[in-house]
Design goal:
The protein has about 260 residues and is an alpha+beta fold. Helices cover about 40% and strands about 20% of the residues. The strands form two sheets. Strands 1-2-3-4-5-7-6 form a seven-stranded mixed sheet, sandwiched between helices. A three-stranded antiparallel sheet has the order 8-9-10, covered by helices on one side. A hairpin with a 7-residue loop joins strand 6 and strand 7. Helix 2 packs across helix 3 and helix 3 crosses helix 4.
């Protein structure tokens, strides 16, 4: 296995500020968080995972349109947390595509991040069942599933927490660019695992094209009337072979061309 040097990768990727063009990826800062959050809110408006702690029996019969302001607010907190502790990428003139990456050894669950991003307000804005789902189930399931899936390699892994493109901008290759902005640099530095949870089965083939392999499936609310599935996917460490123009898994499996 290649030597893991996650600090140098993080420094390289964070320091690269690309020009603000329609088809170029850029690293976002706090001045961009509202626009990035709105893109993700639009992209995940029909997503059952994103609304798992909002579409709850004790919300007074609210529709997703009614829940939109809180849905957007939650994503503003999450984008801020990734600007502070992770990596927020966008593409498009108006941030029509956004990806939230968490580098190796980083997370957004520490109390300092929860306080300065405003995420603590969720405790007062979610319903009783919403709080149970978010704080008592959702966060624990995601955390433990990632550890179980990656094992000892968890500390070396890049985590694609969110990636979304507004409906009007889909089909332009934005998702590929937002993913490969990180994976290509990670591969060039010797390879490291990348991890994600796909909240919709239609996206699994897309991630497979970028080298992710379906690992397992977990259910949110497994005992409820409508369990919500998450497909766990891992991209194994790869290196780029300049002679063949292919990326080769360090565990011995070729996965796609450059």
């Amino acid at each position: 296995m290649a030597t893991m040097t996650s600090i140098s990768w993080t420094t390289t990727i964070f320091s690269e500020k690309l020009s603000y063009r329609n088809d170029n990826v850029q690293v976002c800062g706090m001045e961009d968080y509202k626009a990035c959050a709105r893109t993700l809110a639009e992209a995940f408006y029909d997503d059952d995972v994103a609304f798992y702690f909002l579409d709850v029996p004790d919300n007074g019969g609210k529709t997703r349109a009614d829940l939109w302001p809180l849905h957007l607010e939650i994503l503003e907190y999450i984008v801020c947390a990734h600007i502070h502790n992770g990596l927020v990428l966008s593409i498009g003139e108006n941030h029509e595509g956004v990806a939230l990456w968490m580098p190796p050894g980083k997370n957004m669950d520490d109390w300092f991040t929860i306080f300065r991003t405003g995420m603590w307000r969720l405790w007062f804005k979610l319903t009783t069942e919403g709080k149970r789902r978010y704080f008592g189930e959702f966060m624990d399931v995601l955390h433990q599933t990632k550890i179980n899936a990656l094992g000892e390699t968890d500390k070396h892994a890049w985590y694609l927490v969110y990636i979304g493109v507004t409906p009007s901008a889909r089909g332009r290759g934005y998702a590929r660019k937002l993913i490969e902005h990180v994976t290509s640099q990670v591969d060039a530095k010797g390879g490291a695992p990348c991890y994600l949870e796909s909240s919709h089965t239609r996206n699994v083939p897309m991630y497979q094209r970028y080298g992710f392999i379906k690992h397992s499936r977990v259910l949110l609310g497994p005992d409820s009337e409508k369990p919500v599935p998450l497909d766990i996917m891992i991209r194994p460490p790869m290196i780029y072979n300049e002679k063949t123009g292919r990326r080769i898994s360090t565990v011995g499996r070729k996965l796609g061309s450059s």
